[in-house]
C-alpha cells in the first residue's frame, strides 16, 4: 500500500516533468490523496474534478503505487489513447516505482491475422469500391492498411496514419461475436487481440474503455483480466454506455450480413441444407424489414404485434437451422475454414439476442429505432443491479468527471455507507473568466413567437462576440431553423454540423476568429477549443430527454413518483454542464455561456442545474453579456 507522502512526492516529480514544466494544483493533490485512501480502505469514491484539475495524473499515480491491479475505464477510445500515449509514458519517465501497463480495446479495434490470410484486402461482401465517407479510393486505403499490417507490432487501429471507414476496416477485423477464439482459429497463436489480452493479464494497470467494461460484464467477466480496483473516468457516461453494451440492436441488415458472409465462406463447400437455410434467412430479412416499416417508432410489445412476434420467432428458428447446417459442414470437413467458425459464433449470438427479445423480462425494454435504418433496440432499464453485484461488491471503485450528476453513485448501485464524495473544484477563476447569461425574458418555447425571439437573441450575442460562437441545439430541427434564419443576417461565417466531418469542422472553427459553428448533441462534449476563437457558447434550451424516449419512459416508470428528480434532472444537469464546459479550457480563456431557456432563471428546480455548472458570475441582462463579449473581442 502507499502513503499520502509517497503519492504527493510522485505527483510532484511527474508534474515537474511536464513538457513546459508544471505546478501541482491543490485540487489535484486532494484528489490523489483521496484516491489512494479509497484503494487502501476499499471504499468507493466519487470525485468531481473540474476542467484543468489534471485528474488523470491524480488517479493514475495512486493507482500505480497501490500494489494492486487497477483497471481504468474511459468514456472514449480517444481518452484511452491519450492516457496510453501521453500520460503513462510521462509517468514512466519520472516515477521511480517500476510498473507495467497495458491498453485493452474491443476485438474489432485490432487487425485480424486470419482475415489477412483469407485475402481480406478484397472484402468478404464484394469487391472494393469507393468509400461513401472518404475522398480516397477504397483500394488505395486498403493498400495502406496492408502496408501497415506488414510492420505493426500491436495491430491497433489507432496506430494507422490513414482512416479507413468502418466498412473497409471490417474486412481486416472481426467483432467479439464473430471470433471463434484463439484455440479454434488457425491464426490464434499470432492474434493481436489475444496478445493484448495476455499483456493486460500481466500488467499492474490496464487502460480500457466503458464499452469494453460493458462487454466484460455481458460476457460473465471473461473479457478483462481479474482486477482489484476500478477507476471510471467521465463517469457521467457510464449508465448510458452500459445500457448499450448490455443490450442489443436487431436489424434486417444484420441478418443479410450473416447470410452473405456464410454464403461467401461456403463457396467451395456447397451444401443443400446450408443453401436452403441461407435462402430462407434472406427471405425473412425482407419480411422483417417490411414489418418494421409498418411499426411506429415506439416501445415494442410483442404481445400487441402478432406480425412482429411471428417474425421474431421465425428468425430465431432459422438461425438455429443455420447453426445446425453449418455444424454438419464442420463435422464433415477435416479442416473447416475459420470463416465458418466465425459465422457460427455470429449466428449463435444473434439467435440469443432474438430469443431475449421474444422473452423480454421486466428489467429490459425494447423499442423501434428509425435512424439510420429501422431496427429494434433492447436495453436494460436499470444497470445498478449488475454493477452492485459484479463491481461495487467486489472492488473499490473511483468515479470521476468534471460533471458528476447528483446521486450518481447511488443510481449506479454503490452502497452509500461505503462511498465517499469529493469536489475538488477547478483551478480556473471562473467568476473572473466567465459569465453565465440566462435569457429570462424570452417567451415560453411553446409560444409561436419563441423561435423568432431566440434567433434575434442569437444574432445580437454573436455580433457582440465578433463571431467566435459555438451554438449548441437540443434538436436538429431547432438548429436548422436557426441556420436558415441567421445565415442571411450574420456578418460572420457560419458552419454547420454535417456539412463536413466533425474533425474538419473543428479545424475550420479553430482556425478563424470570426467563424460560428452550429451543432447538435454530438458536439456537447468531447471537443476542445481553447483560446480566443471561442468566446461564446450558446445553449438553446435545457437538455431534458424526450418525453417519448422509450428507454427514459421505462426508467421513469421504474423510478415512480421520484422520476423527474432521479431520472430527468440529473441527466439534464450533466448534459448542460458538459455543453457549458466547452467554453473555459485554459486559464487564459474568457467568455459567456448563454442559455436561451428562461426555465434556468425561474423554474423551481433551477438550482439543481446551476449547481452542476462551474461557478461563473451570473446575469439575466443581455446588455451585460454583450458588454463582456465586446470587451473580450477588443482585447489584443
> What name goes with the CATH superfamily of the largest domain?
P-loop containing nucleotide triphosphate hydrolases
Biggest pleated-sheet summary: 7 strands, parallel
**Alpha carbon gap, first and last residue:** 51 Å
Low-confidence stretches: 120-135
User: Beta-strand level of the residues, as a percent range?
Assistant: 5-15%
| Count of helical regions | 25
How would you portray this structure in words?
By secondary structure, the protein is an alpha/beta fold. Helix content is 46%, strand content 12%. It has 25 helices and 17 strands. The strands form 3 sheets. A 7-stranded parallel beta sheet has the order 3-4-2-5-9-1-10, sandwiched between helices. A 7-stranded parallel beta sheet has the order 13-14-12-15-16-11-17, with helices on both faces. α1 (4-16) crosses α3 (55-65).
Features:
single chain; 636 residues; alpha/beta; Rossmann fold; Fumarase C, Chain B, domain 1; seven-stranded parallel beta sheet; 17 strands
Amino acid at each position: 500500500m502507499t502513503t499520502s507522502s509517497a503519492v504527493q512526492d510522485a505527483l510532484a516529480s511527474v508534474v515537474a516533468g511536464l513538457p513546459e514544466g508544471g505546478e501541482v494544483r491543490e485540487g489535484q493533490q486532494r484528489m490523489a490523496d483521496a484516491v489512494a485512501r479509497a484503494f487502501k480502505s476499499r471504499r468507493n469514491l466519487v470525485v468531481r474534478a473540474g476542467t484543468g484539475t489534471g485528474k488523470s495524473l491524480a488517479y493514475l499515480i495512486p493507482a500505480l503505487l497501490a500494489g494492486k491491479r487497477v483497471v481504468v475505464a474511459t468514456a472514449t477510445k480517444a481518452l484511452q489513447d491519450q492516457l496510453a500515449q501521453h500520460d503513462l509514458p510521462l509517468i514512466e519517465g519520472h516515477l521511480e516505482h517500476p510498473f507495467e501497463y497495458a491498453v485493452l480495446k474491443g476485438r474489432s479495434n485490432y487487425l485480424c491475422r486470419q482475415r489477412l490470410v483469407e485475402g481480406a484486402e478484397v472484402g468478404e461482401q464484394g469487391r472494393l469500391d469507393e468509400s461513401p465517407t472518404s475522398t480516397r479510393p477504397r483500394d488505395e486505403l486498403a493498400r495502406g492498411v496492408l502496408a501497415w499490417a506488414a510492420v505493426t507490432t500491436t495491430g491497433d487501429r489507432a496506430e494507422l496514419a490513414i482512416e479507413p471507414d468502418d466498412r473497409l476496416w471490417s474486412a481486416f477485423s472481426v467483432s467479439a461475436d464473430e471470433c471463434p477464439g484463439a484455440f479454434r482459429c488457425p491464426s490464434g497463436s499470432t492474434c493481436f487481440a489475444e496478445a493484448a489480452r495476455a499483456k493486460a493479464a500481466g500488467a499492474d494497470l490496464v487502460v480500457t474503455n466503458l464499452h469494453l467494461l460493458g462487454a466484460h460484464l455481458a460476457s460473465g467477466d471473461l473479457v478483462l483480466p481479474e482486477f482489484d480496483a476500478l477507476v471510471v473516468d467521465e463517469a457521467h457516461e457510464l449508465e448510458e454506455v452500459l445500457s448499450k453494451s448490455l443490450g442489443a440492436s436487431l436489424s434486417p441488415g444484420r441478418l443479410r450480413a450473416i447470410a452473405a458472409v456464410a454464403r461467401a465462406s461456403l463457396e467451395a463447400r456447397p451444401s443443400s441444407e446450408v443453401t436452403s437455410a441461407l435462402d430462407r434467412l434472406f427471405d425473412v430479412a425482407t419480411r422483417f424489414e417490411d414489418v418494421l416499416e409498418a411499426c411506429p417508432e415506439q416501445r415494442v410489445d410483442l404481445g400487441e404485434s402478432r406480425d412482429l412476434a411471428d417474425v421474431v420467432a421465425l428468425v430465431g428458428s432459422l438461425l438455429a437451422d443455420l447453426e445446425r447446417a453449418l455444424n454438419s459442414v464442420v463435422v464433415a470437413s477435416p479442416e473447416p475454414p475459420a470463416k465458418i467458425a466465425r459465422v457460427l459464433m455470429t449466428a449463435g449470438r444473434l439467435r440469443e439476442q432474438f430469443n431475449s427479445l421474444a422473452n423480454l423480462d421486466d428489467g429490459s425494454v425494447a423499442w423501434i429505432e428509425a435512424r439510420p435504418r429501422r431496427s429494434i433496440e433492447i436495453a436494460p432499464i436499470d444497470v445498478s443491479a449488475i454493477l452492485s453485484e459484479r463491481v461495487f461488491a467486489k472492488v473499490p471503485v473511483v468515479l470521476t468527471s468534471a460533471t458528476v450528476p447528483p446521486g450518481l453513485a447511488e443510481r449506479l448501485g454503490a452502497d452509500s455507507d461505503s462511498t465517499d464524495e469529493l469536489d475538488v473544484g477547478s483551478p480556473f477563476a471562473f467568476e473572473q473568466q466567465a459569465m453565465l447569461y440566462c435569457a429570462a425574458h424570452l417567451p415560453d418555447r411553446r409560444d409561436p413567437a419563441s423561435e423568432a425571439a431566440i434567433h434575434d437573441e442569437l444574432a445580437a450575442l454573436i455580433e457582440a462576440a465578433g463571431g467566435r460562437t459555438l451554438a449548441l441545439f437540443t434538436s436538429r430541427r431547432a438548429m436548422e431553423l436557426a441556420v436558415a434564419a441567421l445565415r442571411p443576417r450574420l456578418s460572420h461565417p457560419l458552419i454547420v454540423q454535417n456539412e463536413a466531418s466533425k474533425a474538419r469542422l473543428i479545424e475550420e472553427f479553430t482556425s478563424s476568429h470570426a467563424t460560428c459553428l452550429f451543432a447538435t448533441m454530438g458536439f456537447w462534449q468531447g471537443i476542445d477549443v481553447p483560446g480566443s476563437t471561442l468566446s461564446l457558447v450558446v445553449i438553446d434550451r435545457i437538455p431534458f430527454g424526450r418525453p417519448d424516449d422509450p428507454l427514459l419512459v421505462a426508467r421513469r416508470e421504474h423510478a415512480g413518483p421520484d422520476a423527474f428528480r432521479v431520472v430527468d434532472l440529473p441527466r439534464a444537469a450533466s448534459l448542460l454542464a458538459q455543453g457549458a464546459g466547452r467554453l473555459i479550457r485554459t486559464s487564459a480563456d474568457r467568455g459567456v455561456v448563454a442559455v436561451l431557456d428562461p426555465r434556468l432563471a425561474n423554474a423551481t428546480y433551477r438550482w439543481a442545474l446551476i449547481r452542476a455548472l462551474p461557478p461563473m458570475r451570473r446575469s439575466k441582462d443581455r446588455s451585460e453579456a454583450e458588454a463582456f463579449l465586446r470587451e473580450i473581442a477588443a482585447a489584443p
